[in-house]
């Protein structure tokens, strides 16, 4: 009788207990992946195959991943945060959420990747780069017409009312990069005027950064503002998508990677960190339709990738726009002026 | 009798044994706490931790040792000793105090740091030892209360009541209170009660521009508009279905009932996705309409219309079941009398049937309204720019700016709305049972539906059936063709392969598919949660309907509270309460199981209470007169008689654990991801085919599991059916 109550109590407790035990296991890596699902999946599988270390991967958007790591600050559950725009990585570095690590692979990396690492005291490193732009559906917008969009300004055309999608900067690093890019390109007040005008043409602020281009690919909308490599990936997969590098110039992201401070498997985190910076690992991107420019100088850039040399790139101030205060300030202003419309 | 008595004492000793084990052997903390200056302790058990310098652990340790001393001094009847309750109670209070007062980063009260220098280092969450001691002290308190006449001196009853109350306090009230307190802090963590008012009155919550011709309403108003619209439509549809089944010669009643089960086992998001595939701007139906009638494709589906469509599809079956009960319970003699007196069929319907239906309609409406408030999956897929509370709460937590305080305020608003509706519902349900009681003498024939009404019902129901079939056709096909979104119907197993691929190589079986992790966790969590949920639900039902104890009404309200809380609120409150010591269980499987247990237990409890009210108490009294105690009576007499309730509870708990999303979305982790959370990620990212394929797999698993549960629980019941029927027949309409 009461014995059964006690047994039930014990059974319930064994759940607690097993929860407590789980942390002690080795041979695991908890990967927070903030890039596209397919590359996240491919990286985890390849790493698992190569090292036998079991990868537990969660894919979330950059903003969600950052919020998760911040929420778990007391007791981190993740080891490595791979991918997603560099800003939240820099912010996390500033707040001490991530750990400093100078990988032996640093010598092989592109300048921009190393600069990213240096500016954060080696708490993060660049793993790929990609320029911001947009893609449009060629079934819905004739690419040969004179009116085909070429610039940021073209997106304000009344013809595109409710035809454009972009992510919500509160949840997506892509959309925050757009916000920061426009502020740097146009000046802050002008950028918000532009976004207010653009709001009339936006049908939906999605929560995932690359979702807008998928909607454009299926024709649910005409234009998606995304990183150009995401637009290229849609086109490669057979969608009628034309990629545009805006004529006024555009910003870019340095997709980054950080080791989470106090994570459960620091050894494996460093093994993964070094492995993922090798040319072989970086070339996996093309297989998973990820057409970013890899950060290892020896890794071949996929032929489909938008060539960064041909794009008018602004001098993106990662230090300023990656900082917590600036980010919070810009997002608050976005909420007040755009989000509330 | 003597045998029984001995067991009681041995088991009373078992709590003591558990307590001693907890402080002497088991590791007190979940993970080793910071190293002390005096060097490491001999072991991780509480006694040695206390010796090594964590002096605040002495009161609970000494308490349990003192109780053990009492046992030795007083012998078998030690629990009746006057000292037991004060010692156990004080130890328990000290145990709680130290657990909450000294956190991960040191003491919450500075004075504690001065008293115990070691406290400055902080302590981690409770582990085996901590939880075992807590359970042991609660058990001893219950035993000694029983020895003082609590629950008529019945030890089983006292233990059960005290444990259920303790668990409810820990897993229902504590999170809610933690959450409510978060509402009083600014995002920077400064205590400032004024921010609550400021947040609660924010114009983006209460703006009513859209009603006065403006562009957009506040999120609370949006939520209300959505809830009222979809509850009204669901109720109307449910009524049409119920009347068609109960009051016409409609031929496909069985098929209709079968269809009405589908939404219950449908994972979230998939209906939303199917609706986009059908009615999105490039949707199939949209394409036909454009081709045949020249209606230009638009994006009307994103926003209020789409959410309402998806919710009506999901809730109409629920309102149907509620209203079917009401319609069938109406006493046909009244209608017959009306007809005999010369009233035309329509007049009879208007003056007799309709008034009798009204309580049922209100109940169905409020049920759908509550479901709509809590719905998370449909708004996030189909919402477009239409903001509702459940979504806003979600982004307050996982958005780029983590603002638990704001999430808390929004949660409290949502909870208030739900509780309001819930209170109204219980008011109406009270009247509904009145109708059922008069329906007992069911002589006479039920009136057929008047022809115009019948036609209307057909006109409403047939499009709904077609729509439902269309949606589920998409679900069945969508996962196994190239790209349903672009209407590329080349058959493929690509998506299934992405989700569930595996390799048998030199390292043995390796699961590479991205969905394996979440599928395993989901199955395991559901399989653990279903019996535990049922156990606590049925036990609570037994306590409420058969035991008498102080504070029973408050107890009943407490159990229903966990049912009324929307999932998003539960999720947020669990994160707020259980991410830090002492009960530090976020990121584990335990938190998922516990969340489901306390969320779904009221259904088993309600089913149990309903079943118990049909069983005469005299059988249990006979059992007790013959010397059986509470537990034996429950096991040998009550449980076999309420098997249908056990089945209902198991199925509900299992299916809900497989399909729930709003609560678990905050509780999943890399190690323990749930299927619904995984599917949501795919949907957000536009990978519809993968989401659909996975959902199809889940639905197949659920159907198999329901059959399996029926086999396990219901098989034995078959032999007793005749007997059971005779007991339950009078109220079978319930």
Task: Spell out the key features of this protein.
heterodimer, A: 341 residues, alpha/beta, D-Maltodextrin-Binding Protein, domain 2, 2 domains, eleven-stranded mixed β-sheet, 14 helices, 43% helix, disordered N terminus, B: 734 residues, mainly alpha, Butyryl-CoA Dehydrogenase, subunit A, domain 3, MetI-like fold, 3 domains, two-stranded antiparallel ribbon, 31 helices, globular, membrane (chain B), MetI-like (chain B), cell membrane (chain B)
Sequence-ordered SSE layout with sheet pairings:
The complex is a heterodimer of chains A (341) and B (734).
Chain A: H1 2-22, E1 28-33, H2 37-51, E2 54-59, H3 62-71, E3 80-82, H4 86-94, E4 98-99, H5 111-119, E5 125-137, E6 164-167, H6 173-186, H7 188-199, E7 202-206, H8 211-218, E8 223-227, H9 228-236, E9 241-244, E10 252-260, H10 266-276, H11 279-282, H12 284-287, E11 293-294, H13 318-321, H14 324-339
Parallel strand pairs in A: 1-2, 1-3, 6-7, 6-8
Antiparallel strand pairs in A: 3-10, 4-10, 5-8, 5-9, 5-10, 5-11
Chain B: H1 2-24, H2 46-51, H3 58-74, H4 84-101, E1 102-103, E2 106-107, H5 110-115, H6 128-147, H7 155-182, H8 194-200, H9 203-206, H10 219-247, H11 253-261, H12 270-279, H13 284-293, H14 304-329, H15 332-340, H16 345-374, H17 377-382, H18 389-398, H19 404-438, H20 451-478, E3 481-483, E4 488-491, H21 494-500, E5 502-505, E6 508-511, H22 516-546, H23 552-564, H24 567-578, H25 589-612, H26 617-625, H27 630-641, H28 643-659, H29 675-684, H30 688-718, H31 721-728
Antiparallel strand pairs in B: 1-2, 3-4, 5-6
Helix pairs in contact in B: 1-3, 1-6, 3-4, 4-6, 6-7, 7-19, 7-22, 7-23, 7-24, 10-14, 10-16, 10-20, 11-14, 12-14, 12-20, 14-16, 15-16, 16-19, 18-19, 19-24, 21-30, 22-25, 22-28, 22-29, 23-25, 25-28, 26-27, 28-30, 29-30
